[in-house]
Amino acid sequence: MTTLAVTGHMDLTEDSVPLVRDALREALKSYAADGSLVGVSCIAKGSDSLFAEAVLELGGRLVVVLPSKDYRQTKVKPDHAETFDRLMKSAAEVVVLEHETANRSAYTDANRTLLKRAERLIAVWNGSPPNPKGGGTADTVLEARDAGLPVDVVWPAGASRRG
């Protein structure tokens, strides 16, 4: 069994979504070849959900980590609700952290939970530096590397972020 976690940008441009989807599928194929792929994701909009969908498409087992008890109600926007709910129903396991409210501390704990459960990290990351506030994609990549966890960066040519 190979357990992969994901971190990645939420703000992918519309044109980047199919590029990232294809790149993730390609990156995961070798891990799914023997039918023992496990993907761990917070299933946020963007990279997390694209990863989760690729895991399921390749016959893998999805583990969802929710940062807080109120995450669905307070953080999942209407344009992501259908995907979020579908992925929740498809998950083999759902881990809800003890935080009452989704905040930076809850997100940091969720990222640490992902890393603890994984053998590798898949990072949908453009290489940008860490956010001074912490808790972002770059922070998770650095934490994984500091812990000795292998990191596979996925950022296909032509991918970009909004803003």
Task: Summarize, please.
The protein is α/β, with parallel strands linked by helices. It is 43% helix and 19% strand.
Helix content: 40-55%
Kindly provide the radius of gyration, computed on alpha-carbon positions and rounded to a whole number of angstroms: 14 Å
Indicate the mean pLDDT. Answer: 95
Q: What is the strand arrangement across the widest sheet?
A: 4-3-2-1-5-6
* Structural class based on helices, strands and sheet pairing: alpha/beta
Record field, number of beta strands: 6
Question: What share of residues are in beta strands?
Answer: 15-25%
* Shape call: globular
- Number of helical segments? 6
Question: How far apart, in Å, are the first and last alpha carbons?
Answer: 38 Å
Elements, N to C (H/E): EHEHEHHEHEHE
User: Which CATH first-tier class would you pick?
Assistant: Alpha Beta
Poorly predicted regions are: none
For the record, the CATH architecture stands as 3-Layer(aba) Sandwich
Q: How would you sum up the major sheet?
A: 6 strands, parallel
CATH topology: Rossmann fold
Domain tally: 1
InterPro entries: YspA
Protein name: DUF1273 family protein
Organism: Streptomyces davaonensis (strain DSM 101723 / JCM 4913 / KCC S-0913 / 768)
